[in-house]
Each structure stands twice: as structure tokens, then as C-alpha cells.
Write a structure and sequence with these properties.
The chain is mainly alpha-helical. The strands form two sheets. Strands 1-2-3 form a three-stranded antiparallel sheet. Strands 4-5-6 form a three-stranded antiparallel sheet. The structure holds acetyl coenzyme *A (ACO). The site of acetyl coenzyme *A (ACO) has 19 residues, from helix 17.
Length: 427
């Protein structure tokens, strides 16, 4: 029997259906609420609002669970590659050997950038943030490539490959061009992650080997970032996409949303915070006190999450990768020592314990990226490259829905009541 929720408003009683997900999550379906009562709901920050039913990613913030298409992220990080995980997210199933081979080939084929598009890079001021450049350039893709109709598996994979591949090229390009360096295109014999390093490190005068440990670490980094259900940037992609704009524009909006320091920009902000702590003689306590001070807007970057009220499962994995990578390279990063000490202090501090604030994925990921030789202002771009499959999968889920609706929230108006326009001499 369908479970219902009963809402009493004065002498009016209405029943609202309860929707139950495959993992037992429950939601009161309020779609008929306004029609039946004239009321809307109020939920700033949408912390209690489900905006869709989804088959892509499951997370349980209380238990620290994250699964893509049912597969635990820990298993994917251990056994899969970013390319295979991307295929899984968008197509719903792991690829066969043949499908994976074809998809990998597509990724190389789609990596070229129109020469006219390349010329845009030179017009950005030299200090432009790579996230701003990337968002603009992805939006510009629509002027160079056809609108995408992804109504069959082949078209879906071409679309995904085009975005994943071009975004990787454009990301490296924004960095290389900002430094006045030439840009190399990927090599067909390299995998997706190796090609990223090949392009990033490429120099006509200096050969640099690609370390397989780096390739493994980058695969894990991108797998962990590949999707995270209805977060800020993914909701932006769905919302902008709901106006039936082209996919490039929707993804461009997602990149812009991700840029913020409360969201994907936190990976850069964490490193900047750790550097500041180091510059202040490594004294952590004043930063912790500042974060607890309600009159101070400062927050400990890399801590807290809207959904996870326990340790972010991605943070656990990336922390391990961080230790393993630095140990294999026989190197030490003083920022890791500060990060570990910071986490240790925070884990015993009643404020952070009471608020359920644990490290999130961004806390250790920047230290990994530093070890891989990625410049700090590129960190959020690295996140964006990783999130591409998730954005495409989520956009597609909306686009495939025959009841796909325009996102259009409501408000409670608290402004001035009706009044007359005053001519200039009467104001
Ligand atoms: N440092 C200090 N206090 C914090 C922090 C923090 N990092 N995060 C949350 N709080 C406190 C708030 O001050 C608030 O306290 P109060 O209830 O006593 O007023 C309480 O915890 C709840 O905070 P909200 O902002 O309401 O929680 P929300 O769920 O909206 O915040 C967010 C989640 C934005 C991630 C927050 O924890 C934060 O700002 N963290 C730092 C930035 C960061 O690391 N972002 C990356 C998130 S992961 C990702 O997007 C990839």
C-alpha cells in the first residue's frame, strides 16, 4: 500500500504520497501541495528538497557511503580507471573490452581543438583564473560544434568523449598558453591520464618520463570526483539544461558553479590556507579559533559537507593515495604534516565534533595534485575534468525523462507593497 504523509492546515487535512527509493530513502511528494492548499514550501539552500529521482549515484551521508550505479567508490578506485568509470556513469553498466577500447579511441580522436578556438586563449588577460577561461571556452564550443542529440549509445559516447577529451586539452592549453609555452596534442598510444601528463609536461627541449604512479593516482583522483549526485554544480547543470539550452552551455554553467570556494574551489583554498599556516610558523590553533568564531566569516577549508555528517569516503581514499604517493616518491610535503596535525586537533575539538565536521575530498586532494606537478590555480580545473562524466550523465537523465520540466522555484515576497511611481522632482 502506498505510504502517505498527512498535513493538517487549520481544519483542512491533506494526504501527500511518500516516495521510497531503492535504498529505502523516503521523500514526501509535494507536487500537489500548491494546487490543494495554495501553499509552497520554503527550503533555502535546498537542504531538504529532492529535485529528481536518479539512478546514477547513491550516497548516505550518515554512514559515509558513495556508490556509482551501485558499485562502491572504494572498489572503483581500487580496480577501475577513470575512463571505465566515466563509461559506467553515463551508460549505466561497465563496458565490455570492445566497448572500452572503442571509447578510449574516441577520447583520442576527439581531443583536437579548432584552431580558431585556440586563438581565443591569447585574448584572456595573463592573470585570468583557469576556471573562468574553461567555463568560457566550453560555452564557446557550441559555436564550433553542432548541438548534440544524444538519443542512442553511439551518440552518447561521442558526446561524452568530445567533452572529456576537449576539456582535458583546453585545461592544459589554458595553463601552457598562460606561460607562453607550446601545446602538444595527446598521443594515441597513451591512456587518458598519461596523455594529461604528456600534454602538461611537454617541452620541445626537455623529455620527461610519465611516472606510472602518477597515472594511477590521477585515475583515482578523477574517479573520486566523477559524480556526487545533486551537488551545487550538478544542480546548476540540470537547472540551466532544463531551459533546453545546448549541453555545452549547461556544462559551462556547472564549471562556473564549481569554481566557488565552498564547492570545488575548496581544493585550491585548502592549499592556500595550509601555506598561510606555514607562513605563520605552522601555528594551527589561531586558525581553528578563527573558524569557530561566529563573528569571523573564515571557515576551515576542506572541512564539512552538506550531506556527509561523518568522514567523507572520498577523503579516506585520497588521504591514503597521498601517503602512498609521497612515500613512493620518497619525498615529503610540509603541507601534509600541517594537514595531518590540523585534522588531529580538529578531530578532538568539541566544536567540530558537535557540528559533525570532518575532512572532505578537498582536504588532501591538493597535496596529491601538488605532488603530481599540477599548478595550484589548476586544481579546480582538475576537479572539473573529473566531474565531466557526472554532469553529462545527470543532464542526460533529465533529458531522457519524458516529463522533463523547466526548473523554476518559487519565493515568498517580503518587499514593499504596491506604491506609485514618483516623478524625479517628487523623490
Ligand atoms: N569551518 C567552521 N565551521 C563550519 C565549517 C567549517 N569548514 N563548515 C560548517 N561550519 C559550521 C557553520 O558555521 C555552522 O555553524 P552554526 O550551526 O553553529 O552556525 C554549521 O557548521 C553548519 O554550516 P552550514 O554552512 O549551514 O552547513 P552547510 O551544509 O551549508 O555547509 C559547506 C557545507 C558549505 C561545505 C561547509 O561545511 C563549508 O563551508 N566548508 C568549507 C568549504 C569546503 O571545504 N567546501 C568543500 C565541500 S566538498 C565539495 O563541494 C566538493
Amino acid at each position: 500500500m502506498q505510504e502517505t504523509a498527512t498535513l493538517t492546515l487549520g481544519d483542512k487535512v491533506i494526504q501527500l504520497p511518500v516516495i521510497i527509493g531503492s535504498e529505502g530513502e523516503r521523500a514526501v511528494d509535494i507536487r500537489s501541495l500548491r494546487k490543494k492548499t495554495g501553499l509552497i514550501t520554503m527550503d533555502p539552500g535546498l537542504a531538504n528538497t529532492g529535485i529528481c529521482k536518479s539512478q546514477i549515484t547513491f550516497m548516505d551521508g550518515e554512514k559515509g557511503i558513495l556508490r556509482y550505479r551501485g558499485i562502491p567508490v572504494e572498489e572503483l578506485a581500487e580496480n577501475s580507471t577513470f575512463v571505465e568509470t566515466a563509461y559506467l556513469l553515463v551508460n549505466g553498466e561497465l563496458p565490455s573490452e570492445e566497448q572500452l577500447k572503442e571509447f578510449s579511441l574516441l577520447l583520442t580522436e576527439q581531443s583536437l581543438i579548432h584552431e580558431d578556438l585556440k586563438a581565443f586563449y591569447g585574448k584572456f588577460p595573463s592573470r585570468s583564473h583557469p576556471m573562468g577561461i574553461l567555463s568560457s571556452m566550453v560555452n564557446a564550443l557550441r559555436s564550433f560544434y553542432k548541438d548534440l542529440k544524444i538519443d542512442n549509445e553511439e551518440a552518447i559516447n561521442i558526446t561524452l568523449a568530445r567533452l572529456m577529451s576537449k576539456v582535458r586539452t583546453m585545461a592544459v592549453m589554458s595553463y601552457k598558453i598562460s606561460r607562453g609555452h607550446t601545446v602538444a596534442y595527446p598521443k594515441p598510444e597513451y591512456c587518458y591520464c598519461s596523455n594529461f601528463f604528456y600534454m602538461l609536461y611537454h617541452s620541445p627541449v626537455r623529455k620527461r618520463e610519465i611516472n606510472p604512479l602518477f597515472v594511477k593516482a590521477l585515475n583515482v583522483f578523477w574517479i573520486l570526483h566523477a559524480d556526487h549526485e545533486q551537488n551545487c554544480s550538478t544542480s546548476a547543470v540540470r537547472l540551466v539544461g532544463s531551459g533546453r539550452v545546448n549541453l555545452y552551455a549547461a556544462i559551462s554553467a556547472g564549471i562556473a558553479a564549481l569554481w566557488g570556494p565552498l564547492h570545488g574551489g575548496a581544493n585550491q583554498a585548502v592549499i592556500e590556507m595550509l601555506i598561510k599556516i606555514r607562513e605563520k610558523g605552522g601555528k594551527i590553533k589561531p586558525f581553528i579559533e578563527k573558524a569557530k568564531n561566529k563573528k569571523d566569516p573564515f571557515r576551515l577549508m576542506g572541512f564539512g559537507h552538506r550531506v556527509y555528517k561523518t568522514y567523507d569516503p572520498r577523503a579516506k581514499i585520497i588521504k591514503k593515495v597521498c601517503h602512498e604517493l609521497l612515500a613512493s616518491l620518497k619525498t615529503n610535503d610540509p603541507l601534509l604534516d600541517i594537514a595531518l596535525e590540523l585534522e588531529e586537533i580538529v578531530s578532538k575539538d568539541p566544536y567540530f565534533m558537535d557540528h559533525h565536521l570532518y575532512p572532505n575530498v578537498d582536504f588532501y586532494s591538493g597535496i596529491v595534485l601538488r605532488a603530481l606537478g599540477v599548478p595550484t590555480n589548476m586544481f579546480t580545473v582538475m576537479f572539473a575534468i573529473g566531474r565531466m562524466p557526472g554532469w553529462v550523465a545527470q543532464w542526460k537523465e533529465d533529458a531522457d525523462d519524458p516529463k522533463w520540466k523547466l526548473y523554476r522555484p518559487r519565493q515568498i515576497y517580503i518587499g514593499k507593497n504596491k506604491r506609485s511611481y514618483l516623478p524625479m522632482d517628487k523623490r
